[in-house]
Amino acid sequence: MTTALPGSPFLAYRGPDLYLEDVSLQALARTHGSPLYVYSRQAMLAALAPYQRALKGRQHLVCYAVKANSNIAVLQTFAQAGCGFDIVSSGELARVLAAGGDPAKVVFSGVGKTRAEMAEALQAGVKCFNVESTAELEVLSEVATGLKLTARISLRVNPDVDAGTHPYISTGLKGNKFGIAHELAVQTYLRAASLPGIEVVGIDCHIGSQITDTAPYLDALDRVLDLVEAIEAAGVRIHHLDLGGGLGITYTDETPPSAEVLIGLLLAKIDARGHGHREVMFEPGRSLVGNAGVLLTEVMFLKPGEHKNFCVVDAAMNDLMRPALYEAYMGIVNVQQRTEPAVLWDVVGPVCESGDWLGRDRALSTQPGDVLAVLSAGAYGMTMASNYNTRGRAAEVMVDGSQVWVIREREAVSDLFKQERLLQAT
Ligand SMILES: *Cc1c(COP(=O)(O)O)cnc(C)c1O
Protein backbone atom coordinates (compact mmCIF):
# COMPACT_ATOMS: atom_id res chain seq x y z
CA MET A 1 0.00 0.00 0.00
CA THR A 2 1.17 3.53 -0.79
CA THR A 3 0.39 6.44 1.54
CA ALA A 4 1.35 9.93 0.40
CA LEU A 5 2.38 12.58 2.93
CA PRO A 6 0.98 16.12 2.93
CA GLY A 7 2.65 18.48 0.49
CA SER A 8 4.27 16.07 -1.94
CA PRO A 9 2.92 13.22 -4.03
CA PHE A 10 6.53 12.16 -4.56
CA LEU A 11 7.01 11.30 -0.88
CA ALA A 12 5.04 8.22 0.15
CA TYR A 13 5.16 5.12 2.33
CA ARG A 14 5.40 1.81 0.51
CA GLY A 15 4.40 -0.55 3.27
CA PRO A 16 6.37 0.68 6.30
CA ASP A 17 9.14 2.34 4.25
CA LEU A 18 9.20 5.97 3.18
CA TYR A 19 10.27 6.62 -0.41
CA LEU A 20 11.12 9.83 -2.23
CA GLU A 21 10.26 9.00 -5.84
CA ASP A 22 11.57 5.43 -6.20
CA VAL A 23 14.32 5.70 -3.61
CA SER A 24 14.11 4.31 -0.07
CA LEU A 25 15.11 7.00 2.40
CA GLN A 26 16.33 4.41 4.91
CA ALA A 27 18.70 3.02 2.27
CA LEU A 28 19.93 6.52 1.36
CA ALA A 29 20.73 7.36 4.98
CA ARG A 30 22.60 4.06 5.38
CA THR A 31 24.65 4.71 2.23
CA HIS A 32 25.35 8.43 2.57
CA GLY A 33 25.16 8.98 6.32
CA SER A 34 23.22 11.63 8.22
CA PRO A 35 22.25 14.40 8.48
CA LEU A 36 21.40 14.25 4.78
CA TYR A 37 19.35 16.56 2.61
CA VAL A 38 17.47 14.72 -0.13
CA TYR A 39 15.66 16.46 -2.99
CA SER A 40 13.31 15.13 -5.66
CA ARG A 41 14.03 16.46 -9.12
CA GLN A 42 10.57 15.47 -10.33
CA ALA A 43 8.91 17.28 -7.43
CA MET A 44 10.77 20.47 -8.34
CA LEU A 45 9.73 20.23 -11.98
CA ALA A 46 6.16 19.40 -10.95
CA ALA A 47 6.10 22.53 -8.76
CA LEU A 48 7.31 24.65 -11.68
CA ALA A 49 4.78 23.23 -14.15
CA PRO A 50 1.70 25.14 -12.87
CA TYR A 51 3.61 28.43 -13.19
CA GLN A 52 4.53 27.57 -16.76
CA ARG A 53 1.02 26.37 -17.62
CA ALA A 54 -0.59 29.52 -16.25
CA LEU A 55 1.81 31.79 -18.17
CA LYS A 56 1.76 29.90 -21.46
CA GLY A 57 1.13 32.02 -24.52
CA ARG A 58 2.19 35.25 -22.85
CA GLN A 59 5.55 36.99 -22.64
CA HIS A 60 6.82 35.87 -19.25
CA LEU A 61 9.77 34.78 -17.15
CA VAL A 62 9.83 32.65 -14.00
CA CYS A 63 12.93 33.64 -12.03
CA TYR A 64 13.66 31.01 -9.39
CA ALA A 65 14.75 32.72 -6.15
CA VAL A 66 18.18 31.23 -5.61
CA LYS A 67 18.32 31.89 -1.87
CA ALA A 68 15.67 29.23 -1.20
CA ASN A 69 18.03 26.43 -2.30
CA SER A 70 21.17 27.37 -4.16
CA ASN A 71 22.81 23.99 -4.86
CA ILE A 72 24.12 24.22 -8.41
CA ALA A 73 22.35 20.97 -9.40
CA VAL A 74 19.05 22.54 -8.29
CA LEU A 75 19.85 25.64 -10.34
CA GLN A 76 20.81 23.43 -13.29
CA THR A 77 17.43 21.69 -13.07
CA PHE A 78 15.58 25.00 -13.26
CA ALA A 79 17.89 26.45 -15.93
CA GLN A 80 17.23 23.42 -18.15
CA ALA A 81 13.50 23.90 -17.58
CA GLY A 82 13.77 27.43 -18.99
CA CYS A 83 13.82 29.43 -15.76
CA GLY A 84 15.59 32.65 -15.06
CA PHE A 85 16.88 33.43 -11.58
CA ASP A 86 16.32 35.99 -8.84
CA ILE A 87 19.63 36.63 -7.09
CA VAL A 88 20.56 38.70 -4.04
CA SER A 89 24.37 38.64 -4.26
CA SER A 90 27.20 38.18 -6.75
CA GLY A 91 27.84 34.86 -5.04
CA GLU A 92 24.44 33.70 -6.21
CA LEU A 93 25.22 35.06 -9.69
CA ALA A 94 28.39 32.94 -9.76
CA ARG A 95 26.34 29.87 -8.84
CA VAL A 96 23.82 30.58 -11.61
CA LEU A 97 26.62 30.88 -14.15
CA ALA A 98 28.32 27.70 -12.84
CA ALA A 99 25.00 25.88 -13.24
CA GLY A 100 24.62 26.95 -16.88
CA GLY A 101 21.98 29.61 -16.19
CA ASP A 102 21.47 32.44 -18.69
CA PRO A 103 22.56 35.81 -17.24
CA ALA A 104 20.12 37.53 -19.60
CA LYS A 105 17.35 35.91 -17.52
CA VAL A 106 18.68 37.06 -14.14
CA VAL A 107 17.13 39.73 -11.94
CA PHE A 108 19.23 41.15 -9.12
CA SER A 109 17.28 41.98 -5.94
CA GLY A 110 18.34 43.15 -2.49
CA VAL A 111 18.68 46.36 -0.46
CA GLY A 112 22.46 46.31 -0.16
CA LYS A 113 24.21 45.59 -3.46
CA THR A 114 27.88 46.61 -3.36
CA ARG A 115 29.62 48.49 -6.20
CA ALA A 116 31.63 45.35 -6.95
CA GLU A 117 28.44 43.29 -7.16
CA MET A 118 26.82 45.86 -9.44
CA ALA A 119 29.86 45.77 -11.73
CA GLU A 120 29.91 41.97 -11.90
CA ALA A 121 26.21 41.83 -12.70
CA LEU A 122 26.54 44.55 -15.37
CA GLN A 123 29.45 42.74 -16.99
CA ALA A 124 27.54 39.44 -16.93
CA GLY A 125 24.63 41.24 -18.65
CA VAL A 126 21.80 40.60 -16.20
CA LYS A 127 18.26 41.31 -17.37
CA CYS A 128 17.34 43.74 -14.62
CA PHE A 129 18.39 45.27 -11.30
CA ASN A 130 15.50 45.51 -8.85
CA VAL A 131 16.52 48.75 -7.17
CA GLU A 132 15.35 49.44 -3.63
CA SER A 133 16.40 53.07 -2.94
CA THR A 134 17.36 56.38 -4.59
CA ALA A 135 20.84 56.07 -3.11
CA GLU A 136 21.28 52.68 -4.76
CA LEU A 137 20.03 54.12 -8.06
CA GLU A 138 22.67 56.83 -7.99
CA VAL A 139 25.50 54.45 -7.21
CA LEU A 140 24.32 52.06 -9.92
CA SER A 141 24.30 54.95 -12.42
CA GLU A 142 27.90 55.79 -11.49
CA VAL A 143 29.07 52.19 -11.74
CA ALA A 144 27.33 51.65 -15.09
CA THR A 145 28.64 54.85 -16.68
CA GLY A 146 32.13 54.03 -15.38
CA LEU A 147 31.95 50.75 -17.27
CA LYS A 148 30.23 52.34 -20.29
CA LEU A 149 27.33 49.96 -19.78
CA THR A 150 23.62 50.46 -19.21
CA ALA A 151 21.82 49.08 -16.16
CA ARG A 152 18.27 48.01 -16.93
CA ILE A 153 16.24 48.62 -13.79
CA SER A 154 12.91 48.25 -12.14
CA LEU A 155 12.12 49.84 -8.83
CA ARG A 156 10.95 47.56 -6.08
CA VAL A 157 7.92 49.41 -4.81
CA ASN A 158 6.42 48.83 -1.43
CA PRO A 159 2.67 48.47 -2.00
CA ASP A 160 1.89 48.90 1.71
CA VAL A 161 -0.79 46.23 1.64
CA ASP A 162 -3.13 46.62 4.60
CA ALA A 163 -1.59 44.94 7.64
CA GLY A 164 -4.96 44.69 9.39
CA THR A 165 -6.31 42.45 6.66
CA HIS A 166 -3.14 40.50 6.03
CA PRO A 167 -1.00 40.55 9.15
CA TYR A 168 1.32 37.78 7.94
CA ILE A 169 2.83 39.88 5.17
CA SER A 170 6.18 40.94 6.32
CA THR A 171 7.97 42.74 3.52
CA GLY A 172 5.30 44.78 1.73
CA LEU A 173 4.46 47.16 4.54
CA LYS A 174 5.53 50.66 5.44
CA GLY A 175 8.10 50.46 8.18
CA ASN A 176 10.19 47.60 6.86
CA LYS A 177 13.47 47.98 5.07
CA PHE A 178 12.35 46.75 1.65
CA GLY A 179 11.34 48.74 -1.40
CA ILE A 180 10.46 52.31 -2.27
CA ALA A 181 7.44 53.87 -0.58
CA HIS A 182 4.34 54.03 -2.76
CA GLU A 183 4.13 57.84 -2.44
CA LEU A 184 7.74 58.28 -3.63
CA ALA A 185 7.58 55.85 -6.54
CA VAL A 186 6.65 58.30 -9.35
CA GLN A 187 9.32 60.85 -8.43
CA THR A 188 11.92 58.10 -8.03
CA TYR A 189 11.06 56.76 -11.50
CA LEU A 190 11.49 60.29 -12.91
CA ARG A 191 14.86 60.50 -11.20
CA ALA A 192 15.84 57.07 -12.59
CA ALA A 193 14.84 58.07 -16.11
CA SER A 194 17.07 61.16 -15.89
CA LEU A 195 20.21 59.31 -14.78
CA PRO A 196 22.97 58.32 -17.21
CA GLY A 197 23.64 54.60 -17.52
CA ILE A 198 20.14 53.73 -16.31
CA GLU A 199 17.30 52.38 -18.44
CA VAL A 200 13.90 51.90 -16.82
CA VAL A 201 12.37 48.60 -17.95
CA GLY A 202 9.93 47.47 -15.29
CA ILE A 203 8.34 47.57 -11.89
CA ASP A 204 8.77 45.05 -9.12
CA CYS A 205 7.18 44.13 -5.83
CA HIS A 206 7.63 41.27 -3.40
CA ILE A 207 5.29 41.39 -0.44
CA GLY A 208 6.49 38.54 1.75
CA SER A 209 6.86 34.81 2.07
CA GLN A 210 4.74 31.75 2.88
CA ILE A 211 1.62 33.58 1.71
CA THR A 212 -1.34 31.19 1.68
CA ASP A 213 -4.10 33.45 0.37
CA THR A 214 -4.68 35.17 -2.99
CA ALA A 215 -6.09 38.41 -1.53
CA PRO A 216 -2.81 40.13 -0.60
CA TYR A 217 -1.39 39.43 -4.06
CA LEU A 218 -4.46 40.90 -5.74
CA ASP A 219 -4.39 43.96 -3.46
CA ALA A 220 -0.69 44.49 -4.16
CA LEU A 221 -1.26 44.09 -7.91
CA ASP A 222 -3.91 46.81 -7.89
CA ARG A 223 -1.51 49.13 -6.08
CA VAL A 224 1.28 48.32 -8.55
CA LEU A 225 -0.96 48.87 -11.59
CA ASP A 226 -2.09 52.22 -10.13
CA LEU A 227 1.58 53.16 -9.96
CA VAL A 228 2.33 51.94 -13.50
CA GLU A 229 -0.46 54.17 -14.79
CA ALA A 230 0.84 57.16 -12.82
CA ILE A 231 4.45 56.52 -13.89
CA GLU A 232 3.53 56.25 -17.57
CA ALA A 233 1.34 59.36 -17.31
CA ALA A 234 4.46 61.12 -16.02
CA GLY A 235 6.28 60.05 -19.19
CA VAL A 236 8.31 56.99 -18.15
CA ARG A 237 7.61 53.75 -20.03
CA ILE A 238 7.23 50.52 -18.06
CA HIS A 239 7.74 47.24 -19.95
CA HIS A 240 7.50 44.42 -17.43
CA LEU A 241 5.61 43.64 -14.24
CA ASP A 242 7.58 41.55 -11.73
CA LEU A 243 5.20 40.34 -9.05
CA GLY A 244 7.82 38.71 -6.83
CA GLY A 245 7.65 35.38 -5.05
CA GLY A 246 6.20 34.39 -1.73
CA LEU A 247 3.62 31.73 -2.52
CA GLY A 248 3.31 29.41 0.49
CA ILE A 249 3.52 25.64 0.77
CA THR A 250 1.91 23.01 2.98
CA TYR A 251 4.04 22.37 6.07
CA THR A 252 1.14 20.99 8.09
CA ASP A 253 -2.44 22.06 7.34
CA GLU A 254 -1.93 25.22 5.27
CA THR A 255 -3.93 25.28 2.04
CA PRO A 256 -2.21 27.76 -0.26
CA PRO A 257 -3.72 28.31 -3.70
CA SER A 258 -1.98 26.52 -6.55
CA ALA A 259 0.33 28.73 -8.59
CA GLU A 260 -1.98 28.14 -11.54
CA VAL A 261 -5.02 29.52 -9.71
CA LEU A 262 -3.10 32.45 -8.24
CA ILE A 263 -1.55 33.44 -11.56
CA GLY A 264 -4.85 32.97 -13.36
CA LEU A 265 -6.44 35.52 -11.01
CA LEU A 266 -3.53 37.93 -11.37
CA LEU A 267 -3.50 37.72 -15.16
CA ALA A 268 -7.27 38.27 -15.27
CA LYS A 269 -6.81 41.48 -13.29
CA ILE A 270 -3.84 42.56 -15.44
CA ASP A 271 -5.93 42.02 -18.59
CA ALA A 272 -9.06 43.64 -17.15
CA ARG A 273 -7.09 46.76 -16.33
CA GLY A 274 -5.61 46.95 -19.82
CA HIS A 275 -2.05 45.82 -19.03
CA GLY A 276 -2.18 42.50 -20.87
CA HIS A 277 0.58 43.47 -23.31
CA ARG A 278 3.26 43.56 -20.60
CA GLU A 279 5.83 40.87 -19.88
CA VAL A 280 4.93 39.24 -16.56
CA MET A 281 7.57 37.91 -14.18
CA PHE A 282 7.51 35.94 -10.93
CA GLU A 283 10.27 35.15 -8.43
CA PRO A 284 9.16 31.96 -6.63
CA GLY A 285 11.54 30.27 -4.24
CA ARG A 286 9.88 28.22 -1.50
CA SER A 287 6.96 27.06 -3.66
CA LEU A 288 9.33 25.46 -6.21
CA VAL A 289 11.58 23.55 -3.81
CA GLY A 290 10.14 23.49 -0.28
CA ASN A 291 8.08 20.33 -0.57
CA ALA A 292 10.64 18.67 -2.84
CA GLY A 293 13.13 18.02 -0.04
CA VAL A 294 13.55 16.26 3.30
CA LEU A 295 16.29 16.31 5.91
CA LEU A 296 17.20 12.83 7.14
CA THR A 297 18.54 12.51 10.66
CA GLU A 298 19.38 9.56 12.89
CA VAL A 299 18.00 9.15 16.39
CA MET A 300 20.93 8.98 18.80
CA PHE A 301 19.44 8.91 22.30
CA LEU A 302 16.04 8.90 23.90
CA LYS A 303 15.74 10.85 27.15
CA PRO A 304 12.28 10.27 28.62
CA GLY A 305 11.64 12.70 31.49
CA GLU A 306 9.10 13.74 34.08
CA HIS A 307 7.87 16.78 32.13
CA LYS A 308 9.25 16.25 28.66
CA ASN A 309 10.61 13.43 26.56
CA PHE A 310 13.61 14.35 24.47
CA CYS A 311 14.57 12.56 21.28
CA VAL A 312 18.18 13.57 20.52
CA VAL A 313 18.97 13.39 16.80
CA ASP A 314 22.16 14.08 14.83
CA ALA A 315 20.74 17.07 12.90
CA ALA A 316 20.67 20.43 14.65
CA MET A 317 19.80 24.09 14.26
CA ASN A 318 23.00 24.59 12.29
CA ASP A 319 21.65 22.15 9.66
CA LEU A 320 18.07 23.43 9.67
CA MET A 321 17.46 26.80 11.24
CA ARG A 322 13.80 27.44 10.53
CA PRO A 323 12.41 25.97 13.78
CA ALA A 324 14.96 27.82 15.96
CA LEU A 325 14.73 31.06 13.95
CA TYR A 326 10.98 31.39 13.37
CA GLU A 327 9.55 28.66 15.61
CA ALA A 328 8.52 27.16 12.29
CA TYR A 329 6.59 23.90 12.28
CA MET A 330 8.06 21.19 10.07
CA GLY A 331 6.64 17.68 9.95
CA ILE A 332 8.79 14.86 11.35
CA VAL A 333 8.19 11.19 10.55
CA ASN A 334 10.02 7.90 10.95
CA VAL A 335 11.23 6.63 7.56
CA GLN A 336 10.40 3.09 8.75
CA GLN A 337 7.06 3.00 10.49
CA ARG A 338 6.98 1.10 13.77
CA THR A 339 3.96 -0.66 15.16
CA GLU A 340 4.54 0.34 18.82
CA PRO A 341 2.31 3.20 20.04
CA ALA A 342 3.60 6.73 19.50
CA VAL A 343 4.88 8.87 22.38
CA LEU A 344 5.26 12.67 22.45
CA TRP A 345 8.85 13.75 21.94
CA ASP A 346 10.71 17.03 21.64
CA VAL A 347 13.07 16.34 18.75
CA VAL A 348 16.31 18.17 19.57
CA GLY A 349 19.83 18.40 18.15
CA PRO A 350 23.27 18.25 19.79
CA VAL A 351 24.01 21.99 19.62
CA CYS A 352 24.51 23.75 22.95
CA GLU A 353 21.46 26.02 22.80
CA SER A 354 18.01 25.48 24.29
CA GLY A 355 16.67 26.87 21.01
CA ASP A 356 18.16 23.89 19.21
CA TRP A 357 15.04 21.92 18.45
CA LEU A 358 13.50 20.62 15.22
CA GLY A 359 10.04 19.81 16.57
CA ARG A 360 8.15 19.94 19.86
CA ASP A 361 5.58 17.50 21.22
CA ARG A 362 5.72 15.24 18.20
CA ALA A 363 3.92 11.91 18.31
CA LEU A 364 6.54 9.42 17.15
CA SER A 365 7.22 5.74 17.62
CA THR A 366 11.00 5.58 17.50
CA GLN A 367 14.14 3.95 18.87
CA PRO A 368 17.84 4.88 18.76
CA GLY A 369 19.28 4.12 15.34
CA ASP A 370 16.03 4.99 13.53
CA VAL A 371 16.13 7.51 10.71
CA LEU A 372 13.66 10.40 10.90
CA ALA A 373 12.71 12.66 8.00
CA VAL A 374 12.06 16.36 8.59
CA LEU A 375 9.56 17.23 5.87
CA SER A 376 9.32 20.24 3.53
CA ALA A 377 12.99 20.97 4.09
CA GLY A 378 13.85 21.75 0.45
CA ALA A 379 13.62 25.54 0.93
CA TYR A 380 15.58 27.69 3.39
CA GLY A 381 17.19 24.55 4.81
CA MET A 382 20.70 23.99 3.49
CA THR A 383 21.02 27.63 2.37
CA MET A 384 20.70 28.79 5.98
CA ALA A 385 23.01 26.10 7.40
CA SER A 386 26.08 27.13 9.38
CA ASN A 387 29.09 25.55 11.04
CA TYR A 388 28.04 26.51 14.57
CA ASN A 389 29.60 24.16 17.13
CA THR A 390 32.18 23.29 14.43
CA ARG A 391 29.76 20.94 12.76
CA GLY A 392 30.39 20.24 9.09
CA ARG A 393 27.41 20.91 6.90
CA ALA A 394 25.29 18.02 5.67
CA ALA A 395 25.64 16.25 2.34
CA GLU A 396 22.95 16.76 -0.33
CA VAL A 397 21.49 14.17 -2.65
CA MET A 398 19.14 14.55 -5.62
CA VAL A 399 16.91 11.69 -6.75
CA ASP A 400 15.14 11.27 -10.08
CA GLY A 401 13.09 8.09 -10.40
CA SER A 402 15.42 5.47 -8.99
CA GLN A 403 18.56 7.45 -9.87
CA VAL A 404 20.60 9.04 -7.08
CA TRP A 405 23.21 11.81 -7.41
CA VAL A 406 25.35 13.19 -4.60
CA ILE A 407 25.12 16.92 -5.35
CA ARG A 408 27.17 18.10 -2.39
CA GLU A 409 29.64 16.14 -0.34
CA ARG A 410 29.55 16.22 3.43
CA GLU A 411 31.89 18.89 4.82
CA ALA A 412 34.94 17.46 6.57
CA VAL A 413 36.11 18.90 9.88
CA SER A 414 39.46 19.79 8.29
CA ASP A 415 37.58 22.05 5.84
CA LEU A 416 36.09 24.03 8.68
CA PHE A 417 39.22 25.80 9.91
CA LYS A 418 41.52 25.60 6.91
CA GLN A 419 41.26 29.38 6.38
CA GLU A 420 42.19 30.10 10.00
CA ARG A 421 45.75 30.88 11.09
CA LEU A 422 47.65 30.36 14.32
CA LEU A 423 49.48 33.40 15.68
CA GLN A 424 53.09 33.43 14.50
CA ALA A 425 55.62 33.19 17.34
CA THR A 426 57.31 36.55 18.05
C1 LIG B 1 13.12 35.71 -0.90
C2 LIG B 1 12.65 36.42 -2.10
C3 LIG B 1 11.89 35.75 -3.07
C4 LIG B 1 11.42 34.33 -2.89
O1 LIG B 1 10.48 34.22 -1.85
P1 LIG B 1 9.74 32.82 -1.59
O2 LIG B 1 8.88 33.11 -0.41
O3 LIG B 1 10.78 31.81 -1.31
O4 LIG B 1 8.96 32.50 -2.83
C5 LIG B 1 11.54 36.45 -4.21
N1 LIG B 1 11.91 37.73 -4.40
C6 LIG B 1 12.64 38.41 -3.48
C7 LIG B 1 13.02 39.82 -3.73
C8 LIG B 1 13.02 37.79 -2.30
O5 LIG B 1 13.72 38.46 -1.39
Automatic annotation (TrEMBL):
Pathway annotation: Amino-acid biosynthesis; L-lysine biosynthesis via DAP pathway; L-lysine from DL-2,6-diaminopimelate: step 1/1
Any one Gene Ontology BP term: lysine biosynthetic process via diaminopimelate
Gene Ontology molecular-function annotations: diaminopimelate decarboxylase activity; pyridoxal phosphate binding
EC annotation from Swiss-Prot or TrEMBL: 4.1.1.20
Positions of modified residues (N6-(pyridoxal phosphate)lysine): 67
Annotated positions binding substrate: 286, 322, 326, 353, 380
Pfam families: Orn_Arg_deC_N, Orn_DAP_Arg_deC
PROSITE patterns assigned to the protein according to its UniProt record, in alphabetical order: ODR_DC_2_2
Catalysed reaction equations from the record: meso-2,6-diaminopimelate + H(+) = L-lysine + CO2
Cofactor(s) the protein needs: pyridoxal 5'-phosphate
Top-level taxon of origin: Bacteria
Sequence positions that bind pyridoxal 5'-phosphate: 246, 283-286, 380
Assembly behavior: Homodimer.
Classification via NCBIfam families: lysA (TIGR01048)
Name of the protein: Diaminopimelate decarboxylase
